[in-house]
Automatic annotation (TrEMBL):
Keywords: Glycoprotein, Transferase. InterPro entries: NST/OST, P-loop_NTPase, Sulfotransferase_dom. This is Sulfotransferase. It comes from Nocardiopsis mangrovi. It holds the Pfam family Sulfotransfer_1. It comes from the Bacteria. Residues 42-243 form the Sulfotransferase domain.
Amino acid sequence: MSIPSSVTSAAGRLLPKSLHPALRVMPDAVGQATRRGRALPTFLIAGGQRCGTTSLFKALVQHPQVAGPTLRKGVHYFDAGYTRGLDWYRAHFPLTATLRALGRTAVGESSPYYLFHPLAAERIARDLPGVRVIVLLRDPVERAYSAHAHELARGFETEPFERALELEEERLAGTEELLCADPAARSHHHRHHAYLRRGHYADQLQRLEKHIGRDRLHVVESEAFFATPEPVFAGVADFLGIAHDSGIAFERHNARPRGAPMPEALRGRLRAHFADADRRLADWWGRVPSWRG
């Protein structure tokens, strides 16, 4: 059975979200049948959530040397799908022969839960030795507010922002231990309701460094990427070992406007909450993040 060219792209371009579900199954089936001839990623965008991962990924897959998964930007293998096995994961990427013919040397995906999931880093290190990992970081106060709007819009949150913050410790209690104890376990609260804890960036970066190595991590400040994307993207290209390209169109994806700005009193409390986490990030990174500058 042939697959219409509008359904998938051998170069790893994303399929439109509007594509009929029945048509989206076809590339999945072909990927599984040909999985042994498919590439594994050379890079991952691991997060953080609501930090511009989609925007960076969509910029990267415009590059003539870069390919992504055939169906979606993120496969979520190293967090929620690890029990499916490496062959299942490989089936989501383009054929090695096609990549070689097109001159695409970098293959990657973007799953923002990889940074926060407690087992993702060691799984990545085990299955993708040599992979390079990009992490985007954003002002944790703004990230938390944006994450709440995102989860609210998706139906994964029902509480207003301040109440969700109050509930976070109770919601997340025991979830990390559960995920570490059972490889098949999933936690709705851990994945969707960690508004504060996801902003403790140093803890997550240290875990990645432990398993991946500092030299294979590249940290991007989201504010800089959106303000001056060209030089930031050039740094990403250098990290991935691909040529600089002036033909990339930079756009902001998945932005969700809030109905009202955050109350200043709440902003002040959150700024105080993240003060120590930001200091530890600055120590790890060797620079003060712009939101503390």
